[in-house]
Amino acid sequence: MGFNKIAFVASNAEVARRALRTLQARYGVVEASEADVIVALGGDGFMLETLHMVMDRDIPVYGMNRGSVGFLMNEYGAASLEDRLANSVESRIHPLRMLAVDTNGAEHRALAINEVSLLRETRQAAKIAIQIDGSIRMPELICDGVLVATPAGSTAYNLSAHGPILPIDAELLAVTPISAFRPRRWRGALLPMQAVIRFDALEPVKRPVSAVADAFEVRDVDWVEARVARDISLRLLFDPGHSLDERILREQFQS
């Protein structure tokens, strides 16, 4: 694939700003609204910001790591960028659509590329019930929280919470408890991509719970619903042999 108009965006980190100046001097300045590809300079957090920025556009994003982890990024290099873009491999991912209703009855909607998570707000553990497609599967989970992760997000917070790593084309979602107290041995579940997941805070006043969709947070939730937004498709570009599928596979064999 070939791209004629390349827009560069960067995080606020100085190393990313330097890379931005270098690449714009070499390849020119194009506004993101006029580009046919966006090159994001930063870490995984900035990649998520960039993907949210282009959520309503059918435009690919090619990341170069100028941050810390960089799981969603390619290696940085200023040379031969046009060739790297032309030879890149595309992965398509779908975000989660979150509906959260707070204890005042107000509705809050957001999209999450990585995960939707519920977290306790105070020193007391949360009590959460889990429904899948309208059926109660977990009447009471006592925990610090619980999350549902996409395949793209399975190597993020989900992995830190000891959830499974999912291949990008697995058509699965991971529901993973965060520091579960009861039932203590429950390690989570794998669900089909079309599942509708609902979390109910069982004592929302005594044990307040927040809901987070990537960087969007709602405090004092009553219940939260999450489902895959099949109508939204995000395009990520990776160097050959460095695709998201390959990264996820490689991650599973690291010690």
What does this entry look like structurally?
The strands form three sheets. The chain has a six-stranded antiparallel beta sheet with strand order 6-5-16-13-8-9, with no helix packed on it. It has a six-stranded antiparallel beta sheet with strand order 12-11-10-7-14-15, with no helix packed on it. A five-stranded mixed beta sheet has the order 1-2-3-17-4, with helices on both faces. It has helices at residues 14-27, 44-53, 81-86, 157-160, 244-251; strands spanning 6-10, 37-42, 61-65, 89-93, 96-102, 107-112, 115-120, 126-132, 135-143, 145-149, 172-178, 189-192, 197-201, 209-213, 216-218, 221-228, 234-238. The chain is 16% helix and 38% strand. It starts with 5 loop residues before the first strand and ends with a helix. It folds into two domains: 6-93 and 233-251, Rossmann fold (3-Layer(aba) Sandwich), CATH 3.40.50.10330; 96-228, Tumour Suppressor Smad4. It is elongated, with a radius of gyration of 19 Å. With 255 residues, the chain is an alpha+beta fold. β1, α1 and β2 (37-42) form a beta-alpha-beta unit. The chain contains five helices and 17 strands.
